[in-house]
């Protein structure tokens, strides 16, 4: 039974992919490189940290929104 490409189906496939593992790995690298002042003060490190934190917040907001929708 194929329901087509809907947003809930897309989000379910993204959740089952390696998105969370990849995000956790990138965050781990940023944590380890953040221990050194020379790397922490670089623009690329600040930008990647901001992107990782923003991604976590957006995933939480989207998940909370769809979790609170009434069942179809």
Automatic annotation (TrEMBL):
Keywords (A to Z) from UniProt: Membrane, Transmembrane, Transmembrane helix
TM ranges: 17-35, 47-67
Protein's name in the database: Putative membrane protein
Native species: Pseudomonas wadenswilerensis
Upper classification of the organism: Bacteria, Pseudomonadati, Pseudomonadota, Gammaproteobacteria, Pseudomonadales
């Amino acid at each position: 039974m194929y329901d087509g490409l809907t947003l809930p189906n897309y989000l379910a496939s993204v959740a089952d992919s390696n998105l969370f593992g990849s995000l956790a790995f990138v965050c781990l690298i940023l944590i380890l490189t953040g221990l050194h002042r020379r790397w922490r003060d670089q623009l690329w490190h600040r930008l990647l940290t901001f992107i990782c934190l923003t991604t976590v917040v957006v995933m939480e907001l989207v998940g909370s929104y769809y979790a609170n929708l009434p069942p179809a």
